[in-house]
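Subject: for your reference before the review

Hello V.,

The reviewers asked for a structural picture of the protein, and I figured it would be easier to keep everything in one thread rather than splitting it across files. Below is the amino acid sequence we used in the manuscript, unchanged from the supplementary table.
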Amino acid sequence: MIKSELIEILARHRPFFHLKDAERIVDAILEEMAEALMRGDRVELRGFGAFSVRYRLPKSGRNPKTNTAISVEEKWVPFFKAGREMQHRLNAASNLDAREIDPASED
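And here is what came back from the structure prediction:
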């Protein structure tokens, strides 16, 4: 799902929202989540999961194309951990065939 699909779904489920209103709501939510993560706060959506940031130390890496050593700088990266309810919902979908989810799993 992409952002525009989420906006369309929100507008469809709430007919009193105009499409522009739904877009403003989604933008406001995503902006506030990004601001919270930039402050170092954790964003938790009960039943869905939690977003946080993690610090990565500087390290040496390798350019796979040229096989030369490169230096990877320290950085903060976003991290998502699915909530227990979301994990249960995903695993309870036993009626889905694994090949429908990942065609590469067909052997």
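For the response letter, the relevant points are probably these. The chain is about 40% helix and 25% strand. Residues 25 and 89 are 26 Å apart (CA to CA).

Happy to draft the paragraph if you're swamped.

O.
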